[in-house]
Specification:
The chain is an all-alpha fold. Helix content is 53%, strand content 3%. The protein has four helices and two strands. Strands 1-2 form a two-stranded antiparallel sheet. A hairpin with a 5-residue loop joins strand 1 and strand 2. The chain is elongated, with a radius of gyration of 32 Å. The relative contact order is 0.08.
Length: 145
């Protein structure tokens, strides 16, 4: 089951472009000319067929609905919507990078732990650990008689 509530055909997902512009317009509640305009402005960039026809994915449809909501309900102009979309894409990319770095860090820590364990296992058993103290001892020899 997909995040949009219905199963996708095998080998496809919400990013697979397969809706023609008329179907995408109907699903998004917008006019096909509006979709073309949004494509020209770079708000929603659908996939293309070899012949140049637009093909929209389910993710594109969701984005078209969000553009419409921001424009009509929130009063945001198209330049502002483009900026919002760009910033959201940047945040998504940064979140992905943070997740990658966290995974790399976890792997590095695991390697460091196993290396430290190997070093500790290689210690000779006749060595005795000593306590380190910071006490100062003053020696006063007794005067000779």
């Amino acid at each position: 089951m997909s995040s949009v509530g219905f199963p996708f055909p095998p080998g496809t997902d919400e990013d697979t472009p397969f809706f023609v512009i008329s179907v995408a317009a109907q699903l998004s509640g917008l006019h096909a000319q509006t979709l073309r305009s949004y494509d020209r402005l770079g708000l929603v960039s659908p996939g293309r067929t070899n012949g140049g026809g637009r093909r929209y994915s389910m993710r594109d449809i969701v984005l078209l609905r969000e553009v419409q909501r921001l424009s009509q309900d929130e009063g945001v102009n198209l330049a502002g919507i483009k900026r919002i979309i760009d910033l959201e894409n940047q945040v998504d990319a940064l979140r992905s990078r943070v997740a990658e770095l966290q995974q790399e860090l976890a792997q590095a820590l695991a390697v460091a732990d196993s290396t430290a364990a190997a070093v500790h296992a290689s210690y000779r058993r006749d060595l005795v650990p000593i306590r380190q103290e910071t006490a100062l001892v003053v020696w006063k020899p007794k005067p000779r008689k």
